[in-house]
Amino acid sequence: MTESYPTTPTAPTRRTTLRAAGGGALLLGLGLTGCRSAVSEADAPSGKAGEAGKASAAPRRGGTLTVAVNADFTPSLLFAQSAQSLQQRLIYNTLTRYDDRLKPQPELATSWEYAKDGRAITLALRSGVTFHDGRPFTADDVIFAVKNLQNPLRAAQLRATAAAVTGFEKRGDHELVLKLAHPVNNLFDLFEFMIITDRASVEDAVTGKKLNGTGPFRLTKWSPGSGLGLSRNETYWQPGRPYLDGVEIRVVPQADALLSSLRTGQSQLSFSVPGKNLAVVAASPELAISEYSTGGGAVYLGVNTTVAPLNDKTVRQALAWGIDRERILKQVLGGYGLASATPWPKSSPAFTEAGRTHYTHNPGKARELLKSAGHTRLDLPLLHVNLPGETAVAEAVQYDLRQIGVHVTLQPTDSAAAQKNLISQNMPGLWTMSHSFAQVQPSTLAVSAYPFNEAKNTSKFRSAAYTKVVREAWTAPADGARANALRQQITDTLLDEAFIIDLAIRGAVQVSARKLHGVTLNKFSYLNLDDAYLAG
């Protein structure tokens, strides 16, 4: 079977070898990869990118990998992409995954074929796959996974794409036709995002009692506040995988303690080291710093457009001009990332340099705009996640806004509570967080990401014109002049309305023991350890 309906752009991505922060940090144009490996200076001979994760010796079987994270697993967010999604691909599989050129590759779906009109797709499903409890994987599990994301009771992005599937035709246990209400150009985003969970125990899954998947590891324990324990799935469908005996995901919320756990060897992998601490890591001979070319989402300032005077876009634009993005990139993110007024990484077909630099640091212009709107001083709350890196972003925003007469009071909030507030549209006037979904099809951001969703976003911004262009961009083929024009209209709307004020594309930085090899992430930062091993 082959694809016939346009899905994703296939432009090659650029991976970049990094210099460590504090040693001349390299500002990156972040590319996109699928099941992607980090690029490390230590692993890339003569500056050649794309060699990370390769070892001189053959892969070694055995050992337990300890991953340090700064926030606990949140079962109620199992079907939403968030900072707590790292463990998804360890327990569950997805239908497909993207390669470095954004071309879908087989996982539980082995091949596929679009109907000529783009309103159906036939999937051939992998046989011989079983869930951890021994039950065979069949087409019914895919049907359930789609319907599960359609369920409004689930906290899940990409619901709109799942909802476009309006019919199912089973052709035995391992062939399935998905019928679509209309063509969509981000169906493979859904297939990489959507974990295949056990339909019989899904309610136990969202309470953390039982996580039954087809993935390489089985859940052995969850200790709320402490972390997850996983052991090798001995009946995994990939022969000889995984190499590791097990994985421990350990919650270490304090930045100093997390860094110490890596330096002392208590942990061998983390994606949670704040940018300002990476210079210390660079001086540790036993650790390697690598960056994933897709980035780690974007840092942004969210605005509740129903709170006066933030209902005036002139005020929102003033905020956008008042923030020093380059300083945030350098001082808070350690130079890993890209200062940007738009959400798009450089490899996105929606990226333009004009959009990235549309808002620069211009406090004089910001004060003029506030004055034209009738304000010389504003006092507003600013919610942020109570973690070191997120607090540093909020403090930088607080400082910059004070210079233009906007005085914000910080509201530190637990990570899980902040995510729930985001989903339920229960934010104060301002908030700072990170968003994802700009690293896949551009239409996905505007139809699925909570801050940007055209139908129901956290800012409570609504516009018939925005809805119209987003829907057109979502249902049109992904390539060509019309696609480019629609993407530009979305970007122009985001910049003009400024209900989400992007600040910087965050670098997805991996800190790992030098003996660890074969670690990858998928588009939604699900950790893939199928080929990972400890060299000694």
Fold and architecture overview:
The protein is globular and about 65 Å long. It is 26% helix and 22% strand. Helix 8 packs antiparallel against helix 11 (363-372), helix 14 packs across helix 15 (464-475) and helix 15 packs antiparallel against helix 16. The chain has an eight-stranded mixed sheet with strand order 2-14-21-13-3-12-11-10. Strands 16-20-15-19-17-18 form a six-stranded mixed sheet. By secondary structure, it is α+β, with helices and mostly antiparallel strands. The protein contains 16 helices and 25 strands.
CA-atom Rg in angstroms: 22 Å
- The main sheet orders its strands as 2-14-21-13-3-12-11-10
**How would you describe the shape?**
globular
Output the number of helix runs.
16
Q: Gap between N and C termini, in Å?
A: 42 Å
| Estimated share of beta-strand residues | 15-25%
Which regions are unreliable across 5 or more consecutive residues at pLDDT < 50? Answer: 1-36, 39-55
Number of separate strands: 25
Structural class: alpha+beta
Average predicted confidence as pLDDT: 87
Helix percentage? 25-40%
Main β-sheet description: 8 strands, mixed
